[in-house]
Amino acid sequence: MNEYEIWSSYQLALVSRGIFTLFTFFAAWFAARVTLNLVNSGNANLFTKLVTTVFGLLIVYFGIVQQAFTDWTTAGTAYALSQVEEPSGRFDSFIAFFAGEGEPTYSLIGDPFITLFWVILGLYIILPLWINNSSD
What we know:
By secondary structure, this protein is an all-alpha fold. It has four helices and no strands.
């Protein structure tokens, strides 16, 4: 593949990642709304709390998976661009910033700040269900 084909494939992959990220943020918003409604109703039973908790954990998982795929795709693109036989030099900064040692491997453990973001978002969804906020 030449640089143009590699870069076009990367851009196409980012479009799909963006759509999935929008869906994930919508699902997180929906879960937060469900949590708010359950907390405000005051009569959430154990089953609804468990279902909402599992849903919130799944959203966090999908968010972390999405970011891991994005990191892997970016590192893979940098690696592929570094392997082009006749590089143009247009992607040298991209390669220097994102390429690692050898071929990239997929891992859920990526950027700690992004993982922290998803964990905090999950806590915003889950904690209000299980912590009693009443002033009794």
